[in-house]
Amino acid sequence: MLPLPKFLRGPRAKRILWLQTFALLCAVRVGLWLLPFATLRRLLTQLSRRRRTANLPLPALLHALTVLSRFVPAATCLVQALTAHTLLVRHGHAVELHIGVAKAGAARLHAHAWVELHGRVLIGAVADLARYTPLPLSVALRS
Questions:
Q1: Shortest CA distance to 69 belongs to which of 141, 140, 2?
Q2: Are 44 and 28 in contact, with CB atoms under 8 Å apart?
Q3: Which of 25, 39, 107, 132 can pair with 35 through a Cys bridge, CB separation 3.0 to 4.6 Å?
Q4: Is there a contact between 86 and 43 (Cβ–Cβ < 8 Å)?
C-alpha cells in the first residue's frame, strides 16, 4: 500500500514524477484497450519527444513505475514497457523498447516486452528472457 501522508510530505519533484507516471500507466492501459497498437505507439512517441529539462535519476523513474504498476489493473509487461520507454526517453535516457515472441507448445506463441539501456534490462526482466526473439519494432507496429 502506498502511504499517502508520507507521499504528500515528500519532495515536490517526486510527487510530480509519481503523478505523471501513474497517469501515463493508466493512459497506456486504456490506450491498449481502445486504440490500434501503431496509433498508440505514435502518440507515445510524440509525447516522449517533449523533453523535460530535468534529467531525473534512472532509479527514481524505475522505482515509481514498479510501485505504481501494482495499482493499475492489467498492467502487463507491455503496459509497463511502453510507459517506461516513454518516460525514460522523455527524461533524456537512450533506452530501447523490445517486443519479443517465444514458442509455447506446438501452436502457441508467448509475447513479452522489455526495456533496455546499453544492453541492461531495466523493465521486464524475466528468468527466461533469452527464449524470446525480439521483433523488429517496425513489424511489431503493424499489429
A1: 2
A2: yes
A3: 39
A4: no
